[in-house]
Amino acid sequence: MVRSALRSVGERRLWRDAPRSAAPPARRFHPRRFPRTTTLLDQQAHSLSPEDTWWVELLETGIVWGAKPDRPDVAVSNEFEFDEDTQDIYGNHRARHRKVKGLYDQARETSPRLRNHSDHSLGRFLSSVGCVTDKHCGPSRTKRGWKLPPLKEARAQWETRFPGWQWGDKNLSDWEAKDDWKED
């Protein structure tokens, strides 16, 4: 009997209240309920957006470009230059001009599909994953950058999006700064 063919109110009520399936509720089909397998995780990993590809790489390695070793969770947005006064083993002072790449440079090198994305779109993505802007970054704390959430929290948030994600180094618990601040 087709729903449109039901004329009386009684027939419509019977149709509405009739059981849809004899199967128990756990066995009923639903398009969003599907098994989580390693094959599904592989498929999801291959179809990540460029931003997600960079973010999961950052979560895997825990290494942040543009961050100082004493504050590895705060990174400068873009590449910057600064002059450093160093002293060699003989006591001679020398000025040295240094370049440090920032978080956006790391994004564009890690995921080449991000090379045409603007800084603004990368900033929106960082905000969406829980990062907060910070205006006191860099050697003299005058550069703009980002404060990243704790690594464990960021990984937990990723695992809510992709249940069953396997991390390369499960013992990694804190961010690490890239070693470009140190002497060559």
Tell me what the structure shows.
- The structure is a single chain.
- The protein is of the alpha+beta class.
- It has one domain (51-184).
- Helix content is 32%, strand content 21%.
- It has helices at residues 9-17, 38-46, 50-61, 103-110, 119-128, 151-161; strands at 63-64, 67-68, 71-76, 80-87, 93-100, 132-137, 143-147, 176-177.
- The strands form three sheets. It has a four-stranded antiparallel beta sheet, with no helix packed on it.
- It is elongated, with a radius of gyration of 26 Å.
- It starts with 8 loop residues before the first helix and ends in a 7-residue tail after the last strand.
DSSP strand tally = 8
- Helicity, as a percent range: 25-40%
Strand content: 15-25%
Number of domains: 1
Backbone CA Rg: 26 Å
Number of helices: 6
Mean pLDDT across the residues is 80
General shape: elongated
- Which ranges are low-confidence, i.e. pLDDT below 50, for 5 or more consecutive residues? none
Strand order of the largest sheet: 2-3-7-6
| Ends apart, CA distance between termini | 82 Å
Structural class: alpha+beta
Secondary structure elements and pairings:
Layout: H1 9-17, H2 38-46, H3 50-61, E1 63-64, E2 67-68, E3 71-76, E4 80-87, E5 93-100, H4 103-110, H5 119-128, E6 132-137, E7 143-147, H6 151-161, E8 176-177
Parallel strand pairs: 1-8
Antiparallel strand pairs: 2-3, 3-7, 4-5, 6-7
Helix pairs in contact: 3-4
Q: Which descriptors apply to this entry?
A:
184 residues, alpha+beta, four-stranded antiparallel beta sheet, two-stranded parallel sheet, 6 helices
